[in-house]
Design a protein that fits this description.
A hairpin with a 7-residue loop joins β12 and β13. α1 packs antiparallel against α2, α2 runs parallel beside α5 and α9 runs antiparallel to α10. Strands 1, 2, 3, 4, 5, 6, 7, 8, 9 and 10 form a ten-stranded mixed β-sheet that branches. By secondary structure, the chain is α+β, with helices and mostly antiparallel strands. It has two domains: 203 residues, 3-Layer(aba) Sandwich (CV3147-like fold); 136 residues, CV3147-like. It is globular.
Length: 372
């Protein structure tokens, strides 16, 4: 990985939003909304500089920032636009030290754009990496916390001007519980800044190169569409994505529960999957895919739902009856496969104690049909 800095251009935004939507596994906030917010800042003259992970200075103070709440609320509830920046400034006031850089807590959905939005507002650089390599619904589910990142001081800010700083929290699970409860009171959507991390810690624990990965994934989707070729095949070639199921959504059950969008999606098969059925469990993100009752993929591997005709990633808040979709999978980053990580982001952490994580393997795609 090179150490050259680069800038986000307006021409990057379509690809960035598409790639973040794919990597978001259905969550992370609506990427189109995040893209629009960032686009307006760039058009107003702001700039966003991206710093490769290996160029991060060891004693930098790095802030992980992102939106917290339920994705459906992010579409329906307009943000003030400065929530994450205000949360970060609140942390700075408590620590008495300014931040040196920003990093995405998750590269999925609108939260891929959130540190870039703060960068445009503050002039700080963004680190090319994140804490998930995808999106997860809960605060503690990052490589940072898995490897012992400090839980406090952390802060929340909402669209009404409220700011809440957490000064002492027992552990990362308590941070999730308390932050989620406050977020619900804030209208189920807020900006969050986590405790500052040293640059050397970020270099040792972040999933590397995910801003560039999101751009590459989005560009592959755009190129496949222009060539009228298979988006699924393009993603298989680029990142090893695996086709898991193709069909039509026949039922969506989704509700806001405890600050999360929780639900279930039923599908009936088409093409090579005709006569079969599938189901996806969701908690903001797609958690588990079953085909004919058998678990085919599960967290922490990535499960993505794409529009069957155009390869458009469909986030969980806009899944609806009648959509023709292709479900694909992508192996998660190796940092999420250790026993320590699986205790925090594996199936048992989501309420599936009897489900053993079985990593997706490239050979699963050997018999796959790639729809054009």
């Amino acid at each position: 990985m090179g150490s050259e800095r680069w800038r986000i251009a307006e021409s990057d935004l379509e690809a960035l939003a598409l790639g973040a939507a794919v990597l978001g596994t259905g969550g992370g906030g609506n990427p189109y909304v995040g893209m629009l917010r960032l686009r307006e800042l760039l058009r107003a003259g702001a700039s966003v500089e991206v710093v490769p992970l290996d160029a991060v200075v060891d004693d930098w103070q790095v802030a992980g920032v992102g939106g917290i709440g339920a994705p459906v609320v992010g579409v329906e509830k307009i943000e003030a636009g400065d929530e994450c920046a205000r949360a970060m400034r609140a942390v700075e006031r408590v620590t008495g030290r300014a931040m040196d850089a920003l990093i995405a807590v998750e590269i999925g959905g609108a939260n891929a754009m959130e540190p870039m939005i703060v960068a445009a507002q503050t002039g700080l650089p963004v680190v090319d990496g994140d804490g998930m390599g995808r999106a997860f619904p809960e605060v503690q589910m990052t490589t940072f916390f898995i490897h012992g990142a400090p839980t406090t001081p952390a802060a929340l800010a909402d669209d009404k001007g409220n700011e809440v700083v957490f000064g002492a929290v027992q552990d990362m699970y308590w941070l999730e519980r308390l932050a989620r409860r406050v977020t619900v009171e804030m209208g189920a959507a807020a900006g969050m800044a986590q405790a500052p991390m040293r640059g050397d810690f970020v270099k040792a624990t972040a999933v590397p190169g995910t801003v560039r990965l999101a751009l590459d994934v989005g560009r592959a989707v755009v190129a496949a569409r222009r060539a009228r070729s298979s988006v699924v095949a393009a993603l298989a070639d680029l990142v090893g994505a695996v086709r898991l199921f193709e069909g039509k959504i026949v039922e969506v059950r989704r509700e806001l529960r405890g600050g999360f969008a929780v639900g279930h999606v039923d599908l009936e098969g088409s093409d090579v999957d005709r006569g079969r059925d599938a189901a996806i469990d969701i908690q903001n993100e797609n958690l588990v895919l079953r085909v004919e009752g058998e678990v085919v993929a599960s967290v922490p591997d990535l499960i993505m739902v794409l529009d069957a005709d155009h390869g458009e990633p469909i986030t969980t808040e806009v899944l609806r009856f009648g959509q023709r979709v292709v479900v694909i999978g992508l192996p998660c980053h190796e940092r999420l496969r250790s026993p320590e990580a699986l205790a925090v982001v594996g199936p048992a952490a989501f309420g599936y104690p009897d489900l053993t994580f079985r990593p997706l393997a490239p050979e699963r795609s050997a018999h796959a049909h790639h729809p054009s």
